[in-house]
Request: fold
Amino acid sequence: MDQLFRKIKDLHPVKQLTSLELTVAYNLVIMHLNVELCAKEEHNQLIGGVLARVVEAHHLDCSKDGSFSRLWNTALSANCLLEHANIIQSLAGLQALIWWTQKKFQEVLNLFQSKATFPITDQFILTIVLKSWEIPDEENKNIHKVFKPSLIKDIVYAAVSFQQGVVQMAQEDYGTALDLFQEAAESCATKSLMARIFNHQGYCFMQKGLLHLALEYLKSAIQKNHKCYSAFYNSALVYKHLGRHKAEVETLFMLDCCLANPSEPVGNIDEWYYIIASDAFMEIESSSQASWVPSLSELRYLLAHNSFKYKMIDQAADYYMKLIRFLREEMNEEMSAPHVPNMAPLPPIAEILLETTECLIQSERLQEAMVVCEELIIKTKDVIPSRMIIDCAKDVDNVVNEQLNCILWTSAAHLLKAKMHALEDEPKTSITAYTSCMNLLLKVQFTNKDGVKQSISPQHKQAVISEVLKCCAFVGRSHQFLLLENLKEALQNAHLGIQTVPACPEAVECLLICLLKMDRKAEVESQWRTFKSNKSRLDGQWKSIKCSLPLFLLEYVNNKYFKNKSLMRDVRNFLDEVVKLELNFPCV
Reply:
């Protein structure tokens, strides 16, 4: 085909070769697009050169500005070229496709202006013109095209309709977007394109709150093309909205399998004859929210994080360990220090390690949890400052913020380490780890915690996390001192826990147990009545505090590892006798 085209170019342009020359150019561009799967400027040059020869052969004047658009205007409007209308308009459709993929939208509008009886001012109006565009019958049956011109029209119409649907979707006009996506589906329904369209339709229905209908379209997208990865992700979002957490996690797992083990592309049997398909020329939806797919690292974090949050503990533990191995391999070196910027949009690696540790503890995999925890402590020990003063009412620079986070992460690691020692019946070692946690937190002093910016200040959230970590360390120490029968230290730490976070129910429980063990029954009753009278306010405060906690710390405070049922029963029995009313004990 290339050789034939070069031979024709060497000849002087004559009218008799017009149809042949245009058809050879049409076929040659189609063949290039089939091989290269993208439009290039050389395709424009090839078409422009042929048009110039045809115009010259018919002695037509387009010297006004000599532009490409002027060439097309002349070719489409010249009466002497009406007998070649089929191939000229076929080539015009091909030109529109090339310009469209090159995002030369105005040139496409200008190209089809001659076909309209009204001004074409935007892409939305262009869809109306394209729908009514009819390519004349072939005038020369002996000259064959390698690709039906009507299919070129379908591809252009599908591209325009689809792109306009994406625009309307971005403007939250989901009804119009759905209509345009349906138009695209009816014009060029290859399986892979239909999968994309079903995915976008499903996304629109999800945004409209029609979740079950959205799910049907997303399932259809996956059935049409198992490589429509965004349909898997959007399905997981729908399941999340429906509260079907197991289905959400299963869908994310299927997406993980697809991304980790992409199979070789397999052609669809009903699409083999499409020398060029619309999919290769529709990159326009890449900016669409409906087309977003998480990276493999983020996806594996979502799997682990959501499984943990939904109490699928054993699964979550496996996913976290798989994620950590993957991150190590991806970085091609040991895990970088937590203060080093992470691969967006993952959370800081330190938080991933802390979530992993807490999850492994709940899964009773203490040895693995200890290894992960120690890794974090080792990585951060050289970047912790000696002292910090943080004003919650002022912004801090990135360096200070990272240093503060390192203190919080490392203290949290010591807190989890202390818990593991406690679970292994090592109270003295546990107390040492709790003390390490508190010593780190004492390096930071927060000021203006009650300022007007507290609801929006990131530093206020960090201050809340710091206070909760301190409270947990005090309560943990109190429990361990109780086991060692050191009641004085146990009571002192329980008091400090309540002073740090008065709303913490476990600190109240620990205090009551200590007082009862010391046979200070009057104080038990007094403390209980004080708590009871402020219960509603304290419950509200505790609920608000928990909303600010990262998952690893939220799981820590929600899961009590140090329950002494006999002591709690003694407290309840005593209060039943004294108060003589039904009690709502905070932690029982």
